[in-house]
Amino acid sequence: MTLYRYVNYGPDISLEYWRVISHTPCGYWIRQVFSENDPASMLFNDPANKRYMRSKAARRFAWPTKREAIYSFMRRKARQIEHLTNQLDFAKRALHVAQGIYDKLKDEQTNQTIDGGHDDTK
Questions:
Q1: Nearest Cα residue to 36 out of 73, 70, 3
Q2: 32 burial class (0-12, 13-18, 19+ CB within 10 angstroms)?
Q3: Strand ranges (DSSP E) for 10-118?
Q4: Where does the pLDDT of residue 117 fall: very low under 50, low under 70, confident under 90, or very high at 90 and above?
Q5: CA–CA separation, 3 vs 6, rounded Å?
Q6: Least packed by Cβ within 10 Å: which of 20, 21, 43, 56?
């Protein structure tokens, strides 16, 4: 059985093919292949190309149809955009706070330079 997973490296989207290589009572082991129709195209014996999938899992690594795989890809990208948007918002807020601290320190340094470095508030 062939399973599918869409991935992106930069702006390009690629379809990966994964083959079930063994079954267990709770799931199965899959390995990445070069093409959908060539059973001899297993990608080396690298453990990184081998994954275990639970058969009853709601979230899967690879899917039995291309349609499910592209839908999963779209959901993953939507979550990625949400996370990155949050990170951007946090970075903007931190920059705003840092700018306020910088301006305050700059004003303090200017005041010290004007009065010869003496602090008359003590």
A1: 3
A2: buried
A3: 12-23, 27-33, 50-54
A4: low
A5: 11
A6: 56
